[in-house]
Records
---
Amino acid sequence: MSLRCSAARSLPALGLVLLLAVLPFILPGPFYIAIAHQILIYALLALSLDILVGHGGMISLAQAAFLGVPAYVYVGLSARAGLSPLPAALSALAAGTALAGLFGVLALRARGLGFLMITLALGQVVWGLAYRWVDLTGGDNGMRLSARPRPFGLDLGRPIPFYYFVSVIFLAALFFLRRFARSAFGASLRGTRDQPRRMAMLGHHVFRIRWLAFIYSGFLGSIAGVLFALSFRFISPQTMTLQQAAEVLLMVILGGPGTLAGPLIGAVIITLVKTVVSSYVARWYTVLGLIFIGVELFLPEGLVPGFARLRRRLGAALLARRRPA
Amino acid sequence: MSAALELRGVSKRFGGLVATREISLSVMPGERHLLIGPNGAGKTTLFNLITGDLAATSGAIYLFGADVTRLSTRARVHRGLARTYQVLTLFPHETLLHNVVLALLGMERGLHGVWRPLSRRIELTERALSALTAVGLAPSAHRIVGETAYGERRRLELAMALAQEPRLLLLDEPLAGLSREERERVRSLLEKIPRSVTVVMIEHDMDAALAFAERITLLDRGAVALCGTRAEVAADPRTREVYLGV
């Protein structure tokens, strides 16, 4: 019984692993394979934001900074300082995580709208620095990375190896988040989301729990940032605009906060509309807007929890129809 | 022996409104102390000052001889303070068991791990279950709080506080809104709290409260009107005056 239960629970995970494994053979060419790995990078960023939004109840507009800053650090250290890829990547992760710690200290002084406004401001400050501090960042022209590294003879410059490289890191992050959600820390974080004062009265260190959530979120976001730098081999302030921050937040809200599949599906939809639909439809923003309005009207809790609810209802309706017979 | 709880001239002002005025009070270890007074007398405000939910405007608060006036709520809880709420403050989407587990997690000092599943921490689950058993909620352990009856939630409040093994327990109207049967049930649970726990209770059910309490403090308009043994307070004309306005 319990074996069957755990097998049923692992089924979606197994399906995802298989899908990611065969995807390069299904997709028509390198362009689509590149879109697939970009989706995974954005999904990782959205999942990192979901630690704050879904589990912590803290809606942040600063997450794009964790895409941009580690990417700047990585490209800067590799292209300008000539650091080899591994130390450059580790420095980038450290910088992104430290930035998250700083953001946490500043933003956690407020709750609700105040929190949102502070994260908005922090994101804009980082964007502004990248834009104006031309000597360091190259300003609007950005910075280029000459080539992707070749760890252990694996040529990440080619589309399929790089796709698998991103997939493995993404799956590892997803596995970590699954553990995270079920851990004592995950439970405490959701506690501070639902009843912060009660949590303090139960002896929990509410500020520390929220601040650590920032650290975990920033660290995972920074992984997406380094992958972003490797993917595009280019970084500019465009990566950290308010629009980018809002898009990541939309991915989480669209798919369903607090779920693992939600941010992934949100990232799939938004990235596909941005990259694929936009090559056929000039007003692709309208398409995105219509999708978003539709979801908010009919499945306000997001696609994943929303469909789960519809399925339960449908199941109950079918059961009710069968009963009289 | 130092008092379990001592208040020295504690005042709380909200702008021009004085919620509590120069309250001094001493509760000895093991004592059952009752706080009474009409609505708006400042009883719950006083609880919030003791827990640190509100900061006192002036005065000092001592727990077991240590000055905690400037300490956070959390630090006071780790010194042995626990409370229940008049307005239920639970985690409605979680199971009863999970609510108690959160109470137990709060008492752990180190950082909570992000790797080990909470469900595999058998010792936590067992302690939570025994806390639920003590209040007769073990059969409902895996139900969602939002789907349980009001009386069960009141007992869950108590189970969460008791699971923390406090030395000083503040009960804010533990009998409020309960049926006669439920009230009897909670009363007998309160009787069973060991003497190692000091209890301060706010309660309007006078029969139950008077049977339980040894000492009583009567609050009126934010100040201590009277403090003494059960017999003294019950016999004093001011009790009647404050309650009935005669």
Note: The radius of gyration of chain B is 18 Å.
---
Amino acid sequence: MKLTVILAAAAMAASALVPLQVHAQDAPVNLVWQMWGDEKDTPLWESLAALVTEEYPNITVTPQISGWTDYWTRLPILASSGQIGDLVAMQSMRMPSFYSVLEPLDSYFATDSFDVSAFETSIIGGLSHEGTHYALPYDVGPWLVFYNHDKFAAAGLADPAMDWTFDDFKAAALKLSTDGNYGYAAQTFDFIAAPVALGAEYFNDANAFDLTNAGYVDAVGKFVDLVAVDKASPLIASGATDSAYGRFSSGNAAMYIDGPWSLISTQGAVDFKMGVAPLPRGDGASRFITAGSGWGISAASKNKDAAYKALKVLTGPKAAQILASGGRALPGRLAEQSYWYDVAAKDVIGAREALTYAFEHSTPFRLNDKWNEFENLLTQYIPLALNGDSTTQAVLADIQSQLP
Amino acid sequence: MAALHETTATATVPRQRSAGGFHAAEGRTAFFFLLPSLLGVTLFLVLPIIASLVLSFTNWKLLGAPAFVGIANYVRLFTADPQFWPVLRNTLFFTAEYLVLNIVISLGLAVWISSLKMGQRWFRVIFFLPTFTPTIAVAIVWMLIFAPDGLFDSVMSALSIHMPSMLTDQKLAMQAVVIVSLWANVGYNTVLFNAALDMVPVNYLEAARIDGAGAWARFWKIRLPLISPTLFFGTVMTAITSLQVFDQIYVMTRGGPGNATATLGFAIYQRGFENFQMGYASTIAWVMFAMIMALTALQFWLQRKWVHYDN
């Protein structure tokens, strides 16, 4: 008697936990949209989701926001446990590791002759894997030098030219390193983006890491020496992130390297006139890598057609305009980029020129499935070259030996 | 009173024996009451442990299906991975230094607190505070203190002490991790040892004092042997947690500079959740598990020499 009561109670409790799986034919479709970001950005993403419902009244999109770092830990776990949402945010640099969770979009593009030429070319490439499109971009940007215009002026330095060279950059960094302040604040990613701008390659022709080639070692060494020899930049610790941003915004460092995605927050944090310039070039012509993010359809989604409709709205002109006017993103859509220039970048010297110049001289950002590993190893090991414990050559050889 | 209890107990024995079914029913009820936590333990502890053992023989990359690779992961770990031995060395170095310092400092503090005439409770609370502060939060604050040109560097240069910035130096980075770990965790053992010291019977100490034993002799010959079971417990637990050290390293150094602070715990995270080599990460986890088991067994074996159980 007692046992049956207990079992009945257990059964009732269990049934309450199982979600009701009733699906009517014409029932509205709810799509879960996985996105990273700050909680304070939630209304922004919700306003984009509302655009979808406006266009397709039977589709609702629910954003599911997690922090940037957590997002990348959660994503593979959600994917492998079948809990992944219908729309998935993806960053170009993570595409080689995660393209398999996304649905290839080419067949969808073919059915409605969707035109990707409305988007900036380099980011369409960045969100593809081996020629297949996996996501549509909402933002894009090259790495740029953010500089403190007031300090440049006070030191009698002209604003950087679009095609300034490493020597110009170094001269400025040295001149601005006075009284406990630094001309430049290095951070790990500089040792990827800046050598490429100088013309170096970290890959061989087979798209595998070749970190010890003379060109890359030399180019990384130039930036390492700014820290280790010239002391034009403070040391960086392997654990600390954002220290360059902090030093720049507090006026401790006059230059650092970042992307347009940070421009709105950096601009809000500084109390001086700031400008942006392309990365310095080497002996050859300038060339710049870009990164960006977008949204794709989960390969496991049960509502792929609805998700494709939603995706087109989320990456459409109206959504791009909202994101650009709010300063949240330099749109991947070329036509809507002017909203960003007019709003987010209106007080920043050189924003439009530097970005236009960088897009004109963009080079494909070469990646492979070991990319995350490489970045982590660089973060961990580059401080050894910066503090003089080791040489650039030895550090890069060490990293290379750990990349299978 | 005691006699009465005994008689009732004896009297009930035959009745219990005759009603064997009652026991079974009781057992079943107990089983259902235990079921929630049994399910919890099975789902969240036993199954994952078995799963991780199975995974350690696969090449699972989180995405996609795992393939069985035999003992390849173990072979790679012990023979091919250039990072395994440095990581193991770092882990053992951290454990040895941190364990000794933790026990010495917490015992010292416990003795000092128990010698105080007043304010004992306050000091216990003060030293215990960091223990219930999240390690991540503690580590973030210390990272800012130790950051290049941070508070620590400013203080050092104000004192005209010229030294490299803690977190950018290969030797000092591990010391920074030790300092933060001590700051965060010494309070637990302090309170533990302090409570044990307070349990030492005063009459033993008084008798020793009358016999002419000095403070030093009383500590080594009476108090320390009497708190040795607690000391043993503290040592074993501290050794286990220090072999698993992760949070401080994750926040402060990310294993760097170079591999100066890369420990087993961090290596598991890095391989598993940054490089998505879940199979290989499970292998490291099982090696770590075996190591902790062995060291704990060794400590239990050694305790026969120095731990005194009063009864």
Note: The radius of gyration of chain B is 26 Å.
---
Amino acid sequence: MNAAAEVRHLTVSYGEKPVLVDVSLTIPRGSFAAIVGPNGAGKTTLMKTMLGLVKPLAGEVRIPARGRRGAVGYVPQSESIDRDFPISAYEVALMGRYASLGWFRRPGKADKSAAEECLRRVGMEKFASRQIGELSGGQQQRVFLARALAQDAEIYFLDEPLKGVDAVSERAIISILRGLCAEGKTVVMVHHDLRTVRDYFDWVSIINLGVVASGAVEDVFCERNIDRAYSRRAAEAAV
Amino acid sequence: MTAALGSMPRLAAGTLAALLSDYTFRTVALGAAIIGLMSGVVGCFSVLRREALLADGASHAALPGVVAAYLITGSKDAAVLLAGAAASAVLAAAATVLTARRTRIKFESALAVAMSVFFGLGLALMSYAQRLPGASKAGLARFIYGEASSIVMRDVCASAALALMLTALVCVFFRQFKLAAFDPEYAASAGLRSGAAGGALTAMTVAVTVLGIQAVGAVLMSALLIAPAVAARQWTRSLAGMTALAAVFGAVSGVAGTAYSSLRDGVPTGPAIVVTASVIAGVSLLAAPGRGIAAKLVRRRRLRRRVLAANVSAPEGFDRTPPDASTTTEQSARPAAPPDGEGSPNAPQNERIIPAAPPDGEKHAAASAPDEDGKGGGSDAGGA
């Protein structure tokens, strides 16, 4: 299998208690993959570790695309940024071009029009000059998505991009992401709404501390696996 | 310069002229202006990166270094003393960062401890040094509250050189600094070395802080970093504008504070500079258009009046931008969206529920279409 991302025996711990234990999974190239699991299962941690933002206690992450700068796109949760930062939506989108600019070159005409085009793709062109803090959470998410699109990455990581997004925007975002997969790019997304997993994704990793199941949606997304993932915490608490 | 002095209307023109023709005043004011300018620039990034506290810690922690440098070398040369200041500031910052990283103690707590310990040590060393013969002439006490009058032409040249370097760095790498301040995690994920930019910003903050304590003092230096940045944020919507404006505010504070303290005997320069900067910040917080408190109150009142006038029951006058005006193309389709959870790809997406997906084929049975009479029997999870 041609893997876009591979995680081997990953264990991550912030303090004494591990957040992820012996996680191994593979995400095939060109897939639209969901990471699901209950609150506190370690979904965001898994994503951040895959991105190299959190150092694992043990194990390794292999993402071949990382060889090229800017080939890994990331859409963080919108709460993670400072809402009072003096920056416009357009400037944020333009940041997606930084990776391809190197140290000294300034963004040129092509970069600027690419940033505008990406804002248009996420339906935020009318808000280009708005301050990031003046946008709603869902709109911020879309601006961050535009930034990742402007990057022209090989693999995209999105941390709950549908949180606080209305139904229309959700449909728009999903169709953009599907388009990326159709171009052969890989999209990995932390997702909360189990009802839409079958409709949206072709690959899913169900996690809770460890991997409960990971594979094609039709193979692993069954009631048994979901129950195992979502009741484990409760079972542990009962013991 | 004149603009700043002009803000003190009570000053007689004669005094002003005398002040301006005074060589010492010009030197000191220039020195203070340069320090204010650098503080403004660097302070913007400190404030936006939420590192303002670190600057505060660094300036307090610089004190024992000053005294130790004097005790070891016996020199009262500003360069030597400031080198000592830098050493102890960096030591304290390193201790703080390591403590925060290696233990469960929070960054602020670690900083508070390091800051108090270093400052206390500085005061203790100071009182010991003061009793030594000749020490009182070294003017160590000026590092607590600052004494801009101790600035000589050589200091001005040195800080001008640093200011030039710093300005050039910020201009050339503005993009990198902006990204490092705004979203360092994103930068790292894209393979951009934001750590280097962040480190450079922290180093510049420490350098400016240490340089500033001679004029402003260890106790108040951080205010000169923070106040111009906070004031500038009120007036602008871009980082470049904020940085430039903060530089101006810092420089103006430096000059005005120096002028005030040289006209009033007994007012130390540091507090005078910091009070000026704080007044600018206070006025900006109150009166800036858009973000100022006054503007917000006025807007709210106007809106309220309009809403009331437009009849409470049908507030059409309430011109609110629709939350999602952008997606107009699909707006028409919106009301008619999901017909009862049928095959719609996006069933109401609020809380997650565990779908009871049947093991075979059939797709959307799970999404709990409103089952009024509950005769479906199988509760949420057991449907299959």
Note: Chain B touches chain A through 55 residues (CB under 8 Å).
